[in-house]
Design brief:
Elements (H helix, E strand, L loop, with lengths): L1 H5 L20 H4 L11 E11 L2 H12 L4 H15 L9 E7 L7 E5 L13 E2 L4 E2 L2 H5 L10 H12 L4 H14 L1 E2 L2 H9 L1 H5 L2 H7 L11 E2 L2 H13 L2 H4 L2 H11 L18 H5 L4 E3 L2 E5 L2 E5 L6 H12 L9 H22 L10 H4 L2 H8 L41 E6 L5 E7 L47 E5 L2 E7 L6 H14 L4 H6 L3 E2 L5 E4 L1 H4 L2 H8 L3 E3 L2 E2 L2 E2 L7 E5 L4 E6 L8 E7 L1
Parallel strand pairs: 16-17
Antiparallel strand pairs: 1-11, 1-21, 1-22, 2-3, 2-12, 3-8, 4-5, 6-7, 9-10, 10-13, 11-12, 13-14, 14-20, 15-16, 18-19, 20-21
């Protein structure tokens, strides 16, 4: 139990050698002191705990816990506030995946409220008949065609029905107050608005809501969203029916089918094919989590249609055959990169909506299959992209075709994550999104929220397990994760970041379990991410380490990640909770990434 106990000792930064030549991050961040933006990234104590990217959302969840609500109640309240303060990353116009561990120790459950394709969808819908080629990605991103049927509102309602203690109406009230009274615009919000300026100007409803006379609102100003306050209030009174039927549903469909475009824009905005029946017939899915054993820890995450749990799990299974905790850190990081490549190759070949495709999940998570993939790793970097393996022989039913034609759908870097626990032992790890930063760019007129562009996660060219189909949910990378040992919780975590979510969760777990870092150190450490590509994404802080140079000698190439065409310093934004002895907990958010997050504990030390 060395890892668990070390969490609650005084945090000491790892030496340069431990991180391959650089510290895990600024000393102020690792020690829990507040960096310059006023965030509160680490909190230790007893009772309930919460970690999110946003102080206002974390406070709302904490108030629910302190007033007797449970973790599911607090997660919904915090998520609703994030829909106000992080509107470019999440909201009721999108969907997500919630992983829940009940306090009674019963089976971990996942609630899939991922967006789905309208019934008018078909495998060739993203093929332009004029060119017989895929529609350009940029045109799908900002279009009605990329909008999936939103699942967030029904997901919240279902989670509360099964596990909550409070009504959705009561839990929406904090978010209603924030939307009505406003919040302070920070540099992240202003920067994301700037990134979307051309798109936001293209839609009068979006321009009116998010721009100040056509310009980016200044950091430090107050942003209010009275339209969203009214929308939340209507849902609070009438429940999910107010979203999926009636005037709001009609306006969602109208926005998708006839995008409200200003005549002066140069953007080509394609209409979608959503119908009122698509909203009315939407439903959530209750699914089993993925589960793998890693060095005595039981790791549970989200299964298909997310690829998060299977890819994290496969990579962990590959890595379990190596001793990462002793010896050269360069070798350990090399093995981490190579395991990521191999797991991503299988992800891209086989993952899709399990109701539409035969996902060989048993084979992908088989220890024997992991051994075959591990045997491909050498001392030098594998040339990428590497080919997928064949997991079907490792299934109980070995039939199934190998799909050698592999393409990779672009996945937006946005999304958000929150992690919550309560004094009873309920745990929620929840990732939700509207896909791209700014989603489709289209605000539903009069209702104050952006619609997603989640259907861009489909592979545009059939055949493929992730091909568009009527009612199908596109493949995701969201990886909300809960780790147990001997039935007791150890850590819960997740992250935004598009396709890099998987490696963010994977690297944090490796930092924590194998490298012996405390949770704040594991979160703050510089990140690298290989998505089965010739080049590995690397944060600038990692490129300054000696490990980067040593890995380059093994044939690895590094590039800085890019978001919306601009270089970014960040890969992911973890929100996590560690569980210690005698009911102690430690909540950890990012100290700096995305402006820093906020963590609170119900009864702090």
């Amino acid at each position: 139990m060395r890892v668990i106990i070390s969490l609650f000792a005084t945090v000491v930064m790892l030496s340069g050698a431990a991180l391959g030549g650089a510290s895990a991050g600024p000393a102020s961040a690792a020690s829990g002191m507040h960096p310059a933006g006023g965030s509160h990234p680490t909190a230790t104590g007893e009772g309930g705990a919460v970690a999110t990217v946003d102080r206002t959302a974390s406070r709302a969840a904490l108030r629910v816990l302190r007033s007797g609500g449970n973790a599911v109640d607090a997660a919904v309240a915090g998520a609703a506030v994030l829909g106000v303060t992080e509107p470019y990353s999440c909201g009721i116009g999108g969907g997500g995946f919630m992983v829940i561990r009940p306090a009674d120790g019963s089976r971990i459950t996942t609630i899939d409220h991922r967006e789905s394709a309208p019934q008018a969808f078909h495998p060739d819908i993203f093929i332009d008949p004029a060119t017989d080629a895929p529609i350009p990605f940029d045109e799908l991103v900002t279009s009605g065609l990329g909008v999936g049927v939103p699942g967030t509102v029904l997901g919240w309602e279902e989670a509360l029905r099964r596990y909550g203690t409070r009504s959705l109406g009561r839990l929406l009230q904090p978010a209603i107050d924030v939307a009505r009274n406003g919040f302070r615009v920070d540099d992240t919000f202003a920067g994301q608005t700037e990134e979307n300026l051309e798109r936001f100007r293209a839609f009068p409803s979006t321009r009116r809501l998010f721009l100040d006379d056509g310009a980016v609102p200044e950091a430090g100003s107050t942003f209010r969203n009275p339209a969203l306050a009214r929308t939340y209030s209507t849902i609070a009174r009438r429940g999910s029916n107010a979203f999926y039927q009636g005037p709001l549903a009609d306006e969602i469909v109208e926005t998708v089918v006839n995008p409200p475009v200003t005549p002066s824009t140069d953007l080509k905005v394609r209409p979608g094919v959503m119908a009122e029946s698509d909203l009315r017939d939407y439903d959530v899915a209750i699914r089993y989590p993925t589960a793998v054993s890693y060095r005595g820890y039981d790791v549970y995450s989200m299964g298909p249609p997310s690829s998060g749990g299977s890819t994290v799990g496969e990579a962990l299974n590959i890595l379990e055959g190596f001793d990462l905790s002793s010896g050269s850190r360069t070798v350990a990081l090399h093995e981490y990169i190579e395991a990521s490549k191999l797991a991503y190759a299988d992800r891209d070949a086989y993952l899709g909506d399990p109701e539409y495709t035969d996902v060989p999940l048993e084979g992908l998570l088989s220890d024997d299959y992991a051994a075959t993939r591990r045997s491909l790793i050498r001392s030098e970097a594998l040339g990428a992209p590497v080919d997928p393996g064949d997991p079907f022989p490792f299934q109980d039913d070995p039939s199934g075709p190998l799909r050698p034609e592999v393409s990779v759908a672009a996945e937006g870097p946005s999304t958000t994550h929150l992690t919550v626990t309560d004094s009873h032992g309920n745990i929620v790890s929840y990732t939700f999104t509207i896909e791209q930063t700014g989603g489709s760019g289209m605000v539903v007129p009069g209702y104050g929220f952006l619609l997603n562009n989640e259907l861009t996660d489909f592979e545009p060219e059939p055949p493929h397990p992730n091909t568009p189909e009527a009612g199908k949910r596109p493949r995701s990378s969201m990886s909300p994760t809960i780790v147990l040992k001997d039935g007791d919780p150890v850590v819960a975590l997740g992250s935004p970041g598009g396709a890099t979510i998987i490696t963010t969760v994977l690297q944090t777990l490796v930092n924590y379990i194998d490298f012996g870092m405390s949770l704040p150190e594991a979160v703050a450490a510089p990140r690298i991410s290989n998505l089965n590509a010739p080049e590995t994404l690397a944060e600038p802080a990692f490129l300054r380490t000696s490990a980067a140079a040593a890995l380059e000698q093994r044939g690895h190439e590094f590039v800085t990640p890019v978001s919306l065409g601009e270089p970014t310093n960040d890969i992911g934004a973890v929100a996590a909770i560690a569980f210690g002895p005698q009911g102690h907990v430690q909540a950890v958010a990012e100290p700096e990434r995305r402006g820093g997050g906020t963590a609170f504990v119900e009864h702090p030390d």
